[in-house]
Amino acid sequence: MRIRSTILTALAGLSLLTAPSWAHRMHAGVTEIAVNERTQELEIIHRIYGHDLMVALDRTGLDAATFLATPEGLAAAGTYAGETFRMADTDGELLALSYVGAEADGEFAWIYFSAAIPARQASFIVDNDLLAETFDDQVMMTNLRFNSAVRTAMQGPGRRAPVRVRFSD
Q1: Over the range 34-71, which residues count as b (16 or more CB within 10 Å of their CB) and which as e?
Q2: How confident is the model over 45-72, as pLDDT tens digits?
Q3: Residues in the chain with pLDDT < 50?
Q4: 3-state SS, residue 154
């Protein structure tokens, strides 16, 4: 019995040492949206786990940093994010998002877009479905910084519908 307990303890300790190799357990990402004061455009920055992006793109055998350094990888990331993230103005008109690029930094993939600031800015509608079709438990937090205010939209399991984020009463 004591040998069995020692073996189980050793296995548990070994699993803790190898924990980073079995990847993260939570599927979560963050999108930051803010006005670039220099260009007077909205900047949209998505941060998701690179290996999760590779699963969504059906490229599981590739390293995210290597893939995103190729023209094919850049195009795939832009197409994917452009299809799974939408943003609309106060009246529900979709904003035209311009893909800027993507890169990997450590375990994260960063995907960049820009958009013109809409004329009416009382609220925005955010529909952030990045990785939701790939992982049932995916949670996306979208932070909007506008007119000196910050608002957050959360989308995840049981809350996939577009979210209206208000900046005026």
Answers
A1: ebeeeeeebbbbbbbbbbbbbebbebeeeebbebbeee
A2: 999 999 999 999 999 989 999 999 999 9
A3: 4-22
A4: strand
How much is the pTM?
0.83
CA dihedral of residues 156, 135, 77, 147 (deg, nearest 10) = 10
Residue that the structure tokens 């803010």 belong to:
34
Do residues 121 and 146 make contact, with C-beta atoms less than 8 angstroms apart? yes
Edge-to-edge strand list for the sheet holding 41-49? 98-105, 108-116, 41-49, 28-36, 139-146, 149-155
- Among 121, 104, 97, 129, residue whose Cα is nearest residue 31: 129
User: Are the C-beta atoms of residues 103 and 66 closer than 8 Å to each other?
Assistant: no
